Amino acid sequence: MMSKKILIIIPAFNEEQALPLFIQELKKTSVQADFLVINDGSTDQTATAAERAGAAVITLPLNLGIGGAMQTGFRAAKELNYDIAVQMDGDGQHPAAGLSDIISPVIDGKFDMVIGSRFLQAGKGFKSTFTRRMGIQFFSTLLSTLTKMPITDPTSGFRAVNRKLIDSFSDYYPVDFPEPEAIMIAKRLGAKIGEVHVTMRERLGGISSIRDWKTLYYMIKVTLAILIDLLKKKE
């Protein structure tokens, strides 16, 4: 892994509680990577907490959501010539122990995008709330049908992409609730997409910005975006 330049992009909104422990955990892995926290218009001390923990920080002037934060990270990865970009949520739900499993298939050239799935294997890991699991299952069925490949965890915020997708996502990335639509975009671009098993845990601190009452809005909006993407020409 030393031969590849890797950037871990951590979108964070009001995650001052979780970030220090999470970044320290990342530093203890065998993966040699840089850490970039995208402070997405937080109203707490997210930026200060991330900097004290040793991460580079880009602070957005207002809250753009995960999509805007991630596109900012992809632009930084492109400008700084990174080979691989990894998305990990700032709440610490993705244990750093799974980082190597996510990155290795991209380094080996097996996949252009690797998604960490909590549903590939049965286990004790955190599976999210019942309402959100219903949304995940809906998008799993939709995307598996449209892409003709099994996608078990389309909303996972733990994923890695290669330079090809870094370049594409730096130019355009879905704005709101982006993960399922990003899979469809990658498929249209001819990317090889795969999943690996990861274990998730409950967040280390803070409060989720995606509450259950948003699930219906989320499903309608993202479904329309995915269907519209079907009309676009393959590249």
Largest sheet, strands/sense/barrel: 7 strands, mixed
Based on helices, strands and strand pairing, what is the structural class?
Answer: alpha/beta
Number of helices: 8
The number of distinct β-strands equals: 7
Distance separating the two termini: 30 Å
Q: What is the molecular shape? A: globular
Number of domains: 1
Kindly report the CATH topology: Spore Coat Polysaccharide Biosynthesis Protein SpsA, Chain A
Strand arrangement across the biggest beta sheet: 3-2-1-4-6-5-7
Are there runs of 5+ residues with pLDDT below 50, and where? Answer: none
- Look at the structure and give the CATH class: Alpha Beta
Describe the protein in words:
The chain is of the alpha/beta class. It has one domain (6-230): Alpha-Beta Complex (Spore Coat Polysaccharide Biosynthesis Protein SpsA, Chain A), CATH 3.90.550. Helices cover 40% and strands 16% of the residues. It is built from 8 helices and 7 strands, in the order βαβαβαβαβαβααβα. The chain has helices at 19-27, 46-53, 65-79, 99-107, 130-147, 163-171, 179-188, 215-230, and strands at residues 6-12, 34-40, 56-60, 84-87, 113-117, 159-162, 193-197. The chain has a 7-stranded mixed sheet, sandwiched between helices. α1 (19-27) links the parallel β1 and β2 (34-40). α5 packs parallel to α7. The mean pLDDT is 89.
